[in-house]
Amino acid sequence: MDRKWITRGYKPGDEDGILALWKASFPDGEIGRADLAYWNWQFRDPPAGSANIRLAAVDELIVGHYAVIPVPMQVRGEEIQGTLSLDTMTHPDYQRQGILTTLASELYAQLGQQGFPITYGFPNDNSIGPLTGKLQWSYVCSLAVYVKPLNPDVIVDQLLPNPMLTAAARPLARFGARILTAPSRAPSQAQAHLCWLDRFDARADELWLATHDPSKITLTRSADLLNWRYFQNPLRDYRAVAYEEGGDLVAYAVLRCMEQFELRGGMITELICQPGRDDALQAVLAAVEEHFVQEEADLTACLVHGDGQATRLLKQNGFLRAPKRAFKEWYFGVRLNDDSVRPDWATDPDRWYLTFGDTDVI
Q1: pTM, whole model, 2 decimals?
Q2: Per CATH, the architecture of 146-321 is what?
């Protein structure tokens, strides 16, 4: 259907039209994403400021949406305001008319003028081509996700739907899980240092200062950002387990159970630890696994790009790099909106620190 559409900025009162567009664009999307409470949390209430949104409309019908939310970032030790691109939508009746390209180009020009030098995102297979080909995005890398099977039988059933194959593969999967992915353990004395959090306080800021590598590009894991991202989310239930010592926060993990690919996944969205404190991180990982087993998760997964200590402990605890063909591939890309950040920094995968918490979908 080819109709005349115009572009404009968001104005209060557009929420109903945007949520209707979301339902039309993602009919099988996560239940609750089209609720006003979630929209307010994600677009109106981020701690760094409200979203910048460009819309395409035909009369009163919103047919296109491109948005970014501001996020506090650090680029080689310098504090900046970056933006996360999310919820890009075009109404099914208005596809292939250049709406995405037009809205994004208009918004990027504004971001450059407003002092937001970096926009980052996690494009899917359908969007990575248009972003890099038409909108000056750079593909940085495909991110490694580490997984640990907790229920090998269920995983085999999903990966090998043929009954004869699954019957043969189940014993092998159980044996492999016992050998390669033994349960995580921690010394009994560590239990006294573990606790579950319902909010982050100033100690999270102190731990981030102690752990952040200033040579990296990353979101600033402040208590304000963490509380908004996890504990103020009106739709998703997150838990956080911490290792405390002498009143200080030594390590923590944020986690969530979710259904994906017909599996129940225990997702580790943050994994932070003081350098050299493998004991604390080991205790946290053991507590995470115990929780996921109690929640009957089929597997646990973690994305922590740019942290050698965390990656090493994950591998020691039986986490394996997920095969790309079996799980979603996580593409990561950036766009520079002005010349204040060097392109060779922003496009170098070794300069980034990233977790599942940098996304908007887990």
Answers
A1: 0.90
A2: 3-Layer(aba) Sandwich (3.40)
